[in-house]
Amino acid sequence: MWQAEVRVDLDAIRDNVAILRAGTTAEVMAVVKGDGYGHGMLPSARAALAGGATWLGVATLDEGLALRRGGLSDVPVLAWLHSPGMPLHDGVAAGIDLSAGSPHLVGELVAAARRAERTARVHLKIDTGLARGGATPAEWPVMLEDAAKAQADGDLEVVGVWSHFVAADSPGHETIDRQLAAFADALATAERFGIIPRYRHIANSAATLTRPDAHYDLVRPGIAVYGLSPVEGETFGLRPAMTARARVAQTKRVPAGQGVSYGHTYVTERETTLALVPLGYADGVPRAGSNAGPVQLGGKRRTVAGRVCMDQIVLDVGDDPVVAGDVATLFGPGDDGGPTADDWAAVVGTINYEIVTRFGSSRVPRVYDGTAGEPA
Ligand SMILES: *Cc1c(COP(=O)(O)O)cnc(C)c1O
After folding, report:
1. Which of 204, 209, 225, 226 has most ligand 1 atoms within 8 Å of its beta carbon, as the pocket-test mutant?
2. Which of 196, 280, 295, 315 has the least CB density, counted as fewest CB within 10 Å?
3. N6-(pyridoxal phosphate)lysine: which positions carry it (predicted)?
């Protein structure tokens, strides 16, 4: 018997990746950082591979090493976020592709390659406008020169050149074309240094779904893998993989005028039934969902009554025959008119990415549905 759980539909992940694959001639790198956006990194990775992904993308070296330890020993993996002094040689030894977004990092990768006694597989990152990771236009030729020399010395192999979008989730945003032009320039400059990478990549989910001209050789969808749309108002046929739900722990009749939960920010209008749902902000429910978050219970959509607590929320179910043990769904695929991660994101002022990633917490057991990618 379970009290609260996060269900993850592996077949949905597989099918979402298959949709992405069908829409491109590029290879698909499924991004599984952030513990697979809260869905569990390894099962999500395996399901994505079953759907046709041929690469996996993570932010940190540790995430990449965890994929290797988890038995994904041959799949190309790219890890892109490194602070100075990280044991990059472990990544090189594990055959993990590493990003370099500054000349300094090229130097570190050369040292890592020598220490690992193995050629480092490197993706050079150009900042085309996001002003996050990546070389500035001024650093780019310096980095290319260093990388070309290291490649000639056998320390590095430049496998990729890449960048990341500012606002591909707003189709038509003026930055998109500007970044694509800057990326094309950066590739032309690389060629002048003799660097012609096998993989050129810039597309996240939004660009994968809306800008085929940005696909190049490899696309890097994350959120779409999990069935959530990066573009407001469009689903692209994707199916949300995560459902967060809990069994009502207790119900009680209370009179009109009863204040509910901390601070009594909700007060009952009439005699009513309150239902206590055992999920709170320690589990991922945003506290900003106080008096706002939608929950499906007893076949109807309710709104959290009063404050979200660390471990629980309260729903006012009126005179409906809700009893302890009934299942309350915070979000899921929305099949039965129930709320989705998008609905939660809208009411708390965030993005669907943050809603599902928050539910990756360890207290709530994660249960997998479907068999995609799992050993037979
Ligand atoms: C997270 C991330 C992605 C995936 O982005 P989505 O919007 O989830 O598709 C791709 N590339 C990089 C560099 C990222 O950090």
Report:
1. 204
2. 196
3. 33
